[in-house]
Give the backbone structure.
Amino acid sequence: MKRKNSVVTLSGVLLFFISNAVTVTVTMFLYTYVNKKTNGDKLIIAAVVLLAILFLSVLWTVVDIIRRRIMIDKPVDKILDATERIAKGDFTVRLPIEHGYSKYNQYDLIMENINVLAAELEKSEVLKADFVSNVSHELKTPITVIHSYATLLQEEKDEEKRKKYAEILVSATARLSNLVTNILKLNKLENQKIIPEIKRFRLDESLAESVLALEEIIEKKNIELVCDLEEMDVLSSQSYLEIVWNNLLSNAIKFTNEGGRVEITLKKVGKNAVVTVSDTGCGISPETGAHIFDKFYQGDTSHAKEGNGLGLALVKKVIDVLGGEISVSSELGKGSTFKVTLKDTAV
């Protein structure tokens, strides 16, 4: 926020000017008056003038102390108290601002900035608590499954049941491994501990490789796959974008029923590369769409066992890091389309 004015400084300057002007005026008046009354007695004149200057100096000092107490010490004390509370972890601090916005002084600006800071920290603390709670919940589920079926596996003699339990254990450990991997990736991205390696590569070939990696699942669900990929070189991070394509394609396949359709397109729009991933799946409600990129959010709980709600949060973070945009349009029962725009990367 820009500085609005300098009320505190101006008040100090005005007080200094007025005190000097009044002191000089009173001194000159007393000098003239005493000089006339005492017929020029220099000793008396000097004593009266000195006493007047001393009195006025004490008076202006008291006035300045009061001014400082009201206009400087009072807001500074509030600011110090607020910053101490924030430093101790109390992010509910909000400082009342007495002046209107058009009359803000420096202290009002500082207090408003502290209010914004405290609000952001409070929001971060809530998100952190939610994240820890969600991680704990997501970890607990596969761990409980692993423990339960490992116990059953130890006691079970029937070979068919043992095989079934082993498959469940493999699935649970895979989910747990995927969860931990996604948490680590997301944490590194959010804390900028890894820097994307930017290089030129064929985006159409990278997309094709991601599709081929999922070919078995696509064939198993008898999904009609349509690819319209324009040949294009881009300047970006291939490894980061693979995270995006894998998640978007996996979701499209997961939420599309057998015999459905998944379409991937790549077009060059100006200097931008635009990728769309569409499906004829269950679609997304407006309520779900508003939170779809939030961590651990899963709009369709029927597929919860297949994911952990981190995939799209990871996708959004990757796109943000690379300076792109992602949006989703969807209709319940008719499918969804995710659109990724990589800005100024098409070369």
